[in-house]
Amino acid sequence: MTDKKWKKKTGLGRGLGALLEDSEEKENISGSGATIRGAISEIPVDQIEVNPFQPRTDFNEEALEELAESIRVQGIIQPITVRALSENEFQLISGERRLQASKRAGLTAIPAYIRTADDQQMLEMALIENIQRENLNAIEIALSYQRLLSECDLKQEELGDRVGKNRTTVNNYLRLLKLPPDIQIALRDGKISMGHARAIVNIENVEQQLAIFKKAVNEGLSVRKVEELVRDLNTEKKETPKPKEQINPEIAKLQDKLTTHFGTKIQVKADSNNKGEIKIPFISAEELDRILELLNV
């Protein structure tokens, strides 16, 4: 099978396919020449370790069993992709479900396409493959986009090229992570659609976001109706602007300094007796981990 035919057969998205092309390198890694980077080889399943950068941690048991049964009957149609760690040790790049199902089907070896990749490429490939799954919800996609931006040091334009989406589409997903956790969970669980969430995110006030969200869920409002409520609310807000709160210059300077340090909008409040609070918001477990690391907690 030529490399050209392989690329057509995989059905990989343009982003992951490009990454695999970038990482291709022909190189013998066994004395016999049986295992070659850039080639497809039969590799013992017990020599393949899972991808430590795999963002997907849960797999549908019923779907896995169905895939295992298909493999028992038809074998592996699409090889997995791995990188070689040593002569008899490999690490999975893509194909976690196929590998797990193959083990269930009783296979002792599996066809694998061998690539060269460093740790950052491994993470990027795993995230992009995860994004290209058809059953991902909007929050899972948004979190994967965020990880690609922060952990793989990509810009939004580069991210769009990697995943085959334009910058506006990528930004629409990323904006969902600004929503309160309750709304993100509802979107993840299918209680509201991305259309509902995209409308609600246009409201600045969290309490008002939650109020419209609860109304939409309780009354089964359509996306168009939610958009109307948001539009009316924003129009009313423009007509009756609230007086701007006066902030102590020193407090404002401290807020700016903390915001720069933590990379997120920090709120500092203090009364005349110097009593107050500091609020450090976060929108995901990954961002919380990053803030805790900065705090050395």
Describe the structure.
Mean pLDDT is 78; it is low at 1-37. The chain has helices at residues 3-10, 14-22, 61-74, 96-104, 119-131, 138-151, 156-163, 167-175, 181-188, 194-200, 206-219, 223-239, 249-262, 285-294, and strands at 27-28, 36-37, 40-44, 48-49, 80-86, 89-94, 109-115, 267-270, 276-279. Strand 1 (27-28) and strand 2 (36-37) form a beta hairpin. Helix 2 (14-22) runs antiparallel to helix 5 and helix 3 (61-74) packs across helix 4. The protein is of the alpha/beta class. The chain is built from 14 helices and 9 strands. It has 3 domains: 3-117, Conserved hypothetical protein from pyrococcus furiosus pfu- 392566-001, ParB domain, CATH 3.90.1530.30; 191-242; 249-294, no CATH class. The protein is elongated, with a radius of gyration of 24 Å. The strands form 3 sheets. Strands 3-7-5-6-4 form a 5-stranded mixed sheet. A two-stranded antiparallel sheet has the order 1-2. A two-stranded antiparallel ribbon has the order 8-9.
- What order do the SSEs take from the amino end to the carboxyl end, as H and E? HHEEEEHEEHEHHHHHHHHHEEH
Q: How many DSSP E strands?
A: 9
Give the termini separation.
53 Å
Instruction: Return the CATH architecture of the largest domain.
Output: Alpha-Beta Complex
Which strand order spans the largest sheet, edge to edge or round the barrel? 3-7-5-6-4
CATH secondary-structure class of the largest domain: Alpha Beta
Give the SSE layout:
Blueprint: H1 3-10, H2 14-22, E1 27-28, E2 36-37, E3 40-44, E4 48-49, H3 61-74, E5 80-86, E6 89-94, H4 96-104, E7 109-115, H5 119-131, H6 138-151, H7 156-163, H8 167-175, H9 181-188, H10 194-200, H11 206-219, H12 223-239, H13 249-262, E8 267-270, E9 276-279, H14 285-294
Helix pairs in contact: 2-5, 3-4, 5-6, 6-8, 7-8, 10-12
